[in-house]
Amino acid sequence: MLTAVLLVKSTRGGLTSLGPKLADVPGISEVYTVTGEWDFVAIVRVREHEQLADVVTQRLT
Fold first, then answer.
1. What is the pLDDT of residues 14-52, one digit of tens each?
2. What is the pTM of this model?
3. What is the DSSP secondary-structure string of 1-61?
4. Which CATH code fits 2-59?
């Protein structure tokens, strides 16, 4: 099992809708709202590196 921590920045006005959308992405197991430079921390848990690449490059863009 691979675990990755993603730092996510939201667009202005998109803060309230982005959290639930992130939580619905397959592979993302946890989403936290944070303050500072980043708006969310998303925890990704997958079995293979290819799945992680898919989450980051295909599902979040």
1. 889 999 999 999 999 999 999 999 999 999 999 999 999
2. 0.90
3. -EEEEEEE-PPTT-HHHHHHHHHTSTTEEEEEE--SS-SEEEEEEESSHHHHHHIIIII--
4. 3.30.70.920
